Each structure stands twice: as structure tokens, then as C-alpha cells.
């Protein structure tokens, strides 16, 4: 199917190439190459030569990108029309369903906070199903969420979506309290306006930040992002609880000496690292934190130090056990 590029006349609304590429989940360079080599879309251009992609263009890009990710060659599907792409997508989905017939489908739960967002998600329930997501709980406000948690209400949700009227420093504090200890693997804040500093603080803490989705395409991209974020392996879990020291200083010295048959000094160096990481965790927690960004940064540094210390403690324990030495009790 040949696609002819036209020029924009009058007032036309559309996405520029960078935005269209982000919505489709691909680098803008890939989008340009696919256009030039395969003619997958032919967006009109403005008088200045700027491409403007329509909703239909973006939907086509998303569909083709998904099929390429599933193993189809771009050259074999680039010129298919929408009906042919839909049929190919449907047949691929049926094969995937048959392949998973004996497996329990993985559905991730959402905890949704906001007065409008739950209604929008209900309206686009089909999008949730396509992404393997399900709303498990909804709250009109952050206060309602916190009140439910105070009552001991537990929700089987892996993803937290929070819609706020504005994003400010106090919002950051509220959201971080919500993620802490909630068992969420991914979290996102949706807002219409706010400060760049508050957004940066949440980014630093591993919380995704989105402007309020203006249409179905943007909402679909948000949900797809959260699904991928939830499945991503994390070195430090979002808002996770820290692990206590397993060995006090006396036990560390004992473990270091118990690995004497090892010719190198690695056990002693591991003990030194454990002590230094423990000291750094304490130092980071006590640092002066004058802003939410500072508090987020130092909390993150402390979490990483805690995670690393725990990993080295496990390594030291394995070394001792490997040489038949008893492991002393924890701190």
C-alpha cells in the first residue's frame, strides 16, 4: 500500500516526530529509517518541513512496532493496510493464547488514586486487558489511601498510579510515603502542572512522572510503560524495607578468620566493605536534607548501601559455609 506525503494547510493538530516515536516506543531514528525505507506512514508536513503525525499514524506505528517486537520483519509488514495488520495481530494473539493454554496468565494489579483517573480507566477497560492489567483498588484521594492503610487494608497490587491536581514538594513527600512498604514494583504520578524540582525528585526515587494523558494513545503508552517498569529487574526495590545487619563486628571478625584456608585476602576485604557500607548507610541517613530532592537522594543512597551490605554478608556466609565453618548468629 503506497502512502503519499501531503502538506499541511490551515490549522492541523498532530504529534511531532519525537513525540510520535516516544508514543510508539521507538527511537526517533528508527521512525525516520522506517519512513524512508519502507514508507510505513506518510505524515503531512508544515510549511517549515516539520512532520505532523495523526492519531491514526501513531496507532499504526504502535501496531507495527508490536509486531516487529514479536519477530515479524519490518519489510514484510510495512505496506500492509490496517485491516491486514489487525488480522495479523489477531492471529498472532491466538497463537500466543494457545502457547499459554497450560499457563496461568500473568495479570498485574493496579492501585489507583484520584477522582478522575479511575473513571477514565474504567472507560478504557479494553486497554487494561490488552496490557494484562487489572484495577484492584481505587481511592478518591491520597488521604483516602492513607486512611485505608492506617486501618490495615492490604491490596494485591503491583503498580501504584496516583493522579494529583498539582505536583509540588509536599506531593513528593506524600507519594514517597505511599510507595514505602506498600510492596509496589512500579509507581507513577499523573499531573497537569507542577514544579520541575518535584518531578526530578520523584524520578530520582524511581517513580515515573507523566503529564495528564490527553487521549487514548497517550494512556495506552502510559499503561505499557508501567507494565514494562513492573517487570524490570531492580537493584533496589521501590520503597522497600531495609535489611538489618546479619552480623555484628565480633561475628564479622570471626567469619573473616574462619576462611583462613583461602590463600587470598578476599574475606578480610569483604568484611571491610561490609563495615564501610554500614557506616555509609548511617552517614547518608543523618545527612542534612533541606529539600525533598535531598531527602530522596540520601534515602536512595542509604537503600543502595543497605542492599550492597546485605549482598556482601551473604557472600561472606557462603565462603564460611563452603569451608565447613559454623556461621555465627546475626547481630
TrEMBL record:
Q: Which GO terms describe its molecular function?
A: DNA binding; DNA-binding transcription factor activity
Q: Where is the HTH merR-type domain?
A: 14-83
InterPro entries in alphabetical order: DNA-bd_dom_put_sf, MerR-type_HTH_dom, MerR_fam
Q: Which domain of life is it from?
A: Bacteria
Q: Does the keyword Transcription regulation apply?
A: yes
List the SMART domains: HTH_MERR
Q: Entry's CDD domains?
A: HTH_MlrA-CarA
The answer on whether this UniProt entry bears the keyword Ribosomal protein reads no
Q: Which SUPFAM superfamilies match?
A: Putative DNA-binding domain
Per UniProt, the keywords (alphabetical) are: DNA-binding, Repressor, Transcription, Transcription regulation
Positions in coiled-coil regions: none
Q: What is this protein called?
A: HTH merR-type domain-containing protein
